[in-house]
Design brief:
Layout lengths: L1 H17 L10 H15 L9 H15 L1 H4 L4 H19 L3 H22 L5 H23 L3 H5 L7 H9 L3 H10 L3 E7 L2 E10 L2 E11 L5 E5 L1
Antiparallel strand pairs: 1-2, 2-3, 3-4
Helix pairs in contact: 1-3, 1-6, 2-3, 3-5, 3-6, 7-10
Length: 231
């Protein structure tokens, strides 16, 4: 099974690169993958005929590349609409797949995308950093407000799916006053670093008359949404 999964991942990577037009060459990785995305969208719309599972993975992988923010922003309106059709079609196709195949897709995409996202990573401009800071503060404050209202289900929706159960159990150990206290004690955050799909903040709080510092981490999930990973 391990060899099979590894082989599928290799096939997907080959397909992703193979769909690129090699007549285009640029040292800029963002431009390279943008062109690959555009070539893919020119070949495909919302229709996918019966193909092998490996080709389906390549199709989905290219759509994920197109969803990377810095690439998506370089698409024109027609290309964005075509991508929307592709993504809707992918959802329909995945509904007809077995659970095993859906898991293989998720594993393969998760294995490939971080490397590609690392290649296209560019330092954020001051304006981009400010926009991201506003977004992440809103998410953090939304989580704290949900806790203050004793809505644990809403609070854990702000977390990465791998961390939500752990924090749900943690929040349930607190009484209502304890949850409200978290909202007041941990409200002060300052951005420290943003690298690829991770943003690190520092939480400063005065607990028992002593100033304390904690790390807060946001990450992007598989859907490209910023979520809380840990604090």
């Amino acid at each position: 099974m391990i060899k099979k999964k590894r082989a599928v991942q290799i096939v997907v990577f080959i397909l992703l690169i193979g769909l690129q037009s090699y007549s285009y060459s640029s040292p800029d990785e963002v431009e390279k993958y943008t062109q690959q995305c555009k070539n893919f969208l020119n070949r495909h719309s919302g229709e996918l005929k019966d193909e092998s599972f490996e080709k389906l993975l390549g199709y989905i992988g290219n759509a994920q590349i197109c969803r990377i923010e810095k690439i998506y922003n370089k698409l024109d309106d027609e290309e964005k609409n075509r991508l929307k059709d592709v993504l809707l079609h992918i959802d329909d196709v995945k509904k007809g797949l077995s659970k095993e195949k859906r898991e293989r897709i998720n594993e393969s995409i998760a294995a490939i995308m971080p490397a590609i996202e690392n290649e296209v990573w560019e330092e954020l401009s001051n304006d981009e950093l400010m926009e991201l800071d506003i977004l992440l503060r809103a998410k953090w404050n939304g989580m704290l407000k949900a806790l203050e209202q004793n809505d644990i289900d809403k609070a854990v929706n702000y977390f990465h799916h791998t961390a939500s159960d752990r924090y749900r159990k943690l929040f349930k150990t607190l009484n209502p006053d304890g949850r409200k206290k978290i909202g007041k004690d941990l409200a002060n955050i300052q951005i420290v670093e943003v690298v690829m799909n991770t943003a690190i903040y520092e939480i400063t709080s005065e607990l028992k008359d002593e100033k304390s510092s904690f790390q807060l981490a946001f990450v992007k999930d598989l859907h490209g949404e910023w979520v809380i990973k840990s604090f």
